[in-house]
Amino acid sequence: MDEMVKKRNELLAETVIKGLQSRNMSAYYAKDKKQALDIALSLIPEKSSVTLGGCTSAIEIGLIDAVKNGDYDFIDRAAYTDKRAAMLKAYDADVFISSANAMTYDGIMINIDGNANRVSAIANGPKKVLFIVGMNKLCPDLDSAMKRARNTAAPINAQRFGLSTPCASTGKCFDCKSPDTICCQFLITRYSRHKDRIHVVLVNDELGF
Q: pLDDT value at position 113?
């Protein structure tokens, strides 16, 4: 990443962190993936039960491998034959790892989901929610954040999962009602009523989709 872009991101992160803090969320800045991993692990006590709802950003910084190989009770949904059982167990986890499909400069997060296991866990259930968010997810306002979630994140995820949706074949949202649609639930997280529940690590890198 260009040094001038990194500097711009660092300055923007200061604004975003203030916005998140004003919304009763804890926020941290990481200059790179390594620092993001260090910060994330410092927020996850050993012996904790930990799970995630599909988070490429956490994989990219090495967090999922670190949790799998560390002294944690990792609830690995992929290892469960009964996926519903894994999802229900996740609601009682100590830490739920996620990212955001988009985030505004003043700290509002947008997440879109197909099965709702991810957005429901973000909204309620796990004791702590840890977001890993690359600077590429940031948008000026709520309207542009929603557009990013629908026209960038959703089409890429539909392609990634091999789904038959209009966005998977065209790269843009058609507000479809396809049986394969992953845009079933939209979660706007604008405030955390419970202090110290939501933690956001902003990473000065491009992560996820």
A: 97
DSSP string, 11-33: HHHHHHHHHHHHTT-EEEEESSH
Report yes or no on 159 lying in a domain.
Answer: no
Identify the domain containing residue 198 by its residue range.
Answer: 3-140+184-203
* CA distance readout (Å), 48 to 53, 66, 68: 17, 13, 12
Strands of the sheet containing 102-104, edge to edge, are: 138-139, 102-104, 109-113, 185-189
CA distance 68 to 60: 14
Retrieve residue 10's tokens.
């660092």
What would the pLDDT profile of 33-80 be if each residue is shown by its tens digit?
999 999 999 999 999 999 998 899 999 999 999 999 999 999 998 889
Which residues, in sequence order, are bridge partners of residue 73?
49
Number of domains making up the chain: 1
Q: Tell me the C-alpha to C-alpha distance, in Å, between residue 165 and each of 71, 130, 176.
A: 40, 30, 8
Q: Measured between alpha carbons, how far is 180 from 172 in angstroms, rounded to an integer?
A: 15
CATH code for position 10: 3.40.50.10420
Radius of gyration of the chain (CA): 16
The model's pLDDT over 67-116, given as tens digits with 9 standing for 90+, comes to 999 999 999 988 898 989 988 999 999 999 999 999 999 999 999 999 99
